Amino acid sequence: MALFKNKFDTLFFGFLISIILVFLFFRPLNSPWHKFIAGDGFGYYAYLPAKYIYNDTDYSFKWFNKIYKANYVYESFPNPEDNFLVAYNNKRINKYYQGLSYIWLPFFGVAHLVAKFFNYPADGFSQPYQLFIGFASIFYLIIGLVYLRKIIYKLFQNNLASTLTPIAIFYGTYLYYYSINLNSQSHTYSFVFFTLFIYHLLCFFEAESKLRPLIFTALFFVIAVCIRPLNGLIILTVPAFMPTSFFKQPFRLGKIKWFDGFLISILIGALINQFMIMYIQTHSLFPYTYSNEKFYFNRSKFLEALLSYNMGLFTYVPLAFISLFGIRYLSIQKKIILPFILFVVIFLYSSWWYWPIPPRGIIDFYPILAICLAALINKLSNQKKLLIVLLVFICLSVFYYLFKNMQKQKGILDESITYKEVFWRNFFRTKKANMFLIPPSSIIKQTNYNLDFESSYFNKELLSQINHTGKNSILIVKENSFCRIFDCTYPILFNEKGNRKIRLSFWSYFTPAIISNHIFIQFFDKNHLLIKEYPFYLSESDIFYNIWDYKEFGIDLSDDILNLKQSIHKIEFSIWNVEGKQNLYIDDFKAEFILTDNSYSILK
């Protein structure tokens, strides 16, 4: 008997193997700086060690700080508890819900046994626990993708659509990054349980005996809501998949078997545990645990969530835009309901106080985008030329997303502060540029000084005809290895209210063998005595040889400098070619003094 029924099964199996290989080769498995349990994951996961290791029956998590410091080398917060504990009615509670702890429990149990057997600290956060949470994310991801394929085949009976769509959704969207790199975030798991919910919903509508599909549908809905209450919106998909003849047919639940009773007990247990833990912490069954975090519907960033340079879904995931063309080929109720759900979800997430969240919040609802994409593939599968065009666009979208994802991981782009000039300047870069980002929309006032080294003001002995623009550049070599490029008085605009920033930029041309370069912003008094100095260092990894490369640096003026502003007479900008043995050319130098507001700040 053949292992696979057809070539599509073989291709899909190869795809699942590729996920495991990508995880093993690209996800650091034992990095002290990149743990599997991190960020929001602290809150979702902390219920397990609290209950099964520390007997923390009131969920006060007083043990957490000590264990954190024993296992982590970095601190996102001075007080590690602040990763997940918030003030609520004069006490501290875990703001995250318990859903993920339910599905992590088997992996946690195995990790606990491994830790004891191999003499690791059985503290809930040592290496075995970290690894098994990582394995859990891939395990559930694969389940979700398998059932996504089942959904699409149920809907369209098209092998190409059901096989290609999960591959494209994984490699061409944020699902790739969040499932491979952020293994304790909730979004991959929400995607999985949404998929399981929709699949068993379809089974419920198709089956003659509806009890077991109904129980599975309810169970996966409950788990999804226990992960994130906002996941309850998935219930809106029910009428989209309901057959028009559903209420005309006899409704048969069938007999309850022992397995059905087992599933019902899990469902009820999950709900009881959810309410019990909430009540223990808050003395309320329906608390709002996110404390001061809330939605701001009057300043929703809906369009930014779709099109902005820093977080736009279509800007970074063009596959999502392509998928929308499939809406036309859905049945009438799906054509209305599914886009409506996407609209509501994007609007809600773009109204949240932490406005960069929409790209990852939408991951939960990717099954809807997948159905739309599959509808488009299914429609064009019998039109060879159009199908080829579509497949080319899908492939380009996947490669584009992976490239942009790489740029974000290398810090070339930043989801919180990337703006038009940064996006296009770095469109094809594969290495991080030196940049000091200031969103133009936050600028109140600025004064600029541009030097192109074309005027007679500059010493001709320092000039070179190797240039980026114009005729001249400055040559920095042994004879003038420390070169003062520009100086000016303290700018008047810094006496006004706002955030004061200084940015300097230039184009540089390094000849081979230069391995170090220093840039300085210096503050002097009237006697030319140095008051304060801000150095910037370029090492060999920052230097590109024999090409003109853009460099940018800057500072936010600190309180100590602002207190000394009456003593500051001059601000100087200098560049030091440290060894001075090889030629360094500088052109198109710019010094900017900028006053900004807080409009681009996430934390107000």
Would you mind describing this structure in some detail?
- The protein is α+β, with helices and mostly antiparallel strands and 604 residues long.
- It is 44% helix and 15% strand.
- The chain is built from 21 helices and 12 strands.
- The strands form 3 sheets. Strands 3, 4, 5, 7, 10 and 12 form a 6-stranded antiparallel sheet that branches.
- Helix 6 packs antiparallel against helix 7 and helix 6 crosses helix 18.
- The radius of gyration is 29 Å and the shape is globular.
- The protein starts with 6 loop residues before the first helix and ends in an 8-residue tail after the last strand.
- The model has no long low-confidence stretch (mean pLDDT 90).
List the SSEs and their pairings:
Layout: H1 7-26, H2 41-45, H3 47-52, H4 64-71, E1 85-88, E2 91-94, H5 99-117, H6 127-156, H7 159-171, H8 174-180, H9 187-206, H10 211-227, H11 238-241, H12 258-282, H13 302-307, H14 313-316, H15 318-324, H16 332-350, H17 358-361, H18 366-380, H19 384-409, H20 420-425, E3 443-451, E4 463-464, E5 473-476, E6 482-488, E7 499-510, E8 517-524, E9 530-538, E10 548-556, H21 559-563, E11 570-577, E12 584-596
Helix pairs in contact: 1-7, 5-6, 6-7, 6-9, 6-18, 7-18, 9-10, 10-12, 15-18
> How many distinct helices?
21
**Overall average pLDDT:** 90
What proportion of the residues is helical, as a percent range? 40-55%
Largest sheet: 6 strands, antiparallel
Number of DSSP-assigned strands: 12
- In percent terms, what proportion of residues is strand? 5-15%
Show unreliable segments.
Answer: none
Would you tell me the structural class of the helices and strands?
A: alpha+beta
C-alpha Rg, in Å? 29 Å
Global outline? globular
Q: Roughly how many Å apart are the termini?
A: 64 Å
